[in-house]
Amino acid sequence: MADERAVPSAEPSSALQHEPSAETPSAGSPRPRNVTMREIAARLGVSIKTVSNVVNERPNVGSATRERVQQAIRDLNYRPQVGAQQMRTGTSGLITLAIPSLAGTYFSELAQAFADEAQRRRRSIMLHSTAAGRDEEASVLSGFTRVLGDGVVFNPLLIGEDVIAGLGRTIQPTVFIGEHLAEAALPAGSDYVRTDNERAAHDATAHLLGLGRRRIAYLGMLPTTESRQAHSTSRLRLGGVRRALTEAGAPEPVVPTVPTWSQEGGLSAGRELMDSHPEVDGIVCGNDDLARGVLLGLRMAGIDVPGQVAVIGYDNIREAAFTTPSLTTIDPDKQALAATVLDLLIERIGGYDGPARVIEAPYRLVVRGSAG
């Protein structure tokens, strides 16, 4: 995962205003007005309730009438507006996914996993990037006054645990993801789904030790700034590396900083690492983007992988299987995480108001050529 940093809506309402018809106006012509359920009903000679029942997929409509209504909906390009639905029913079928960025490969794949799982539950995912920083993350906690939605999936990065704990209760049903929240910090109305980063990095390091590697480096620590959390993803993963080395009686890891958790960051940091520490024979990377850069840098330097240096990444992004050599990596099950999160959130949206729940999502080590 990058460090510290849709689909049909459910059950549209029967008294909504709607999107314009599919007819495309010519240049300079006025925009076609919205089609209403009333107009569909009048066109077919049926009641508005009948049209509503078809739109909402209710069973009490004859098959012939249902087919006529569905055809009229297609002909007129009838679409419910989410805003009107939310005003009338209190629900929109929308869930906001607030993540630090879509620039990293992990988060783009995670967003797709959420979209897939939401579609199975007849919900829609609305993406919200908090890349603008701490104030943008605070807007998530203040209730997204400018964004529609029934609940929030939130991966905080810069905002402190004290701020989250100080809420007392979230404005909207919320499920937190990420790896650096303490259970005590969870406010009422929220749940938390996480992957055990420390244990996963421990397992990756133990795999390198099992291959006979003894001089291990960890690439993933960013330069320290006031905005970076003490319990960041990178620190948790470094803790797992250190614990595995201590248990094996191996030397402390080499821990240079990296400029970014990106391929470019891995390329530069990996080459500098081998120039300054040529004895290193195993590298655990904070994510797969870093590891891809490291692999390229080692290949450019004529260093054999895994003969001289074994490399392990984290995230199991799609490209991991297609690097040279293919990348051994930790696979946090993104689909399982998304499914668990949405199940918890939909329960909250539906009225569950019990204590905060904390669930660990599964992960596994995928062994490929870079550390086979």
Helices and strands in order:
Layout: H1 37-44, H2 48-55, H3 63-76, H4 82-89, E1 94-99, H5 105-120, E2 124-129, H6 134-141, E3 151-154, H7 161-165, E4 169-176, E5 188-194, H8 197-210, E6 216-219, H9 233-248, H10 263-276, E7 282-285, H11 288-300, E8 310-314, E9 328-332, H12 334-349, E10 358-360, E11 363-366
Parallel strand pairs: 1-2, 1-3, 3-4, 4-5, 5-10, 6-7, 7-8, 8-9
Antiparallel strand pairs: 9-11
Helix pairs in contact: 1-2, 1-3, 5-12, 8-9, 10-11
Report on this structure.
This protein is of the alpha/beta class and 372 residues long. It folds into three domains: 17-79, lambda repressor-like DNA-binding domains (434 Repressor (Amino-terminal Domain)); 89-196 and 334-363, Response regulator (Rossmann fold, 3-Layer(aba) Sandwich), CATH 3.40.50; 197-331 and 365-371, Response regulator (Rossmann fold, 3-Layer(aba) Sandwich), CATH 3.40.50. The protein is built from twelve helices and eleven strands. It has a six-stranded parallel beta sheet, sandwiched between helices. A five-stranded mixed beta sheet has the order 6-7-8-9-11, with helices on both faces. The longest helix is centred in the N-terminal third of the chain and has 16 residues, at 105-120. This is LacI family transcriptional regulator. Residues 35-89 form the HTH lacI-type domain. It comes from Brachybacterium kimchii. Pfam families: LacI, Peripla_BP_3.
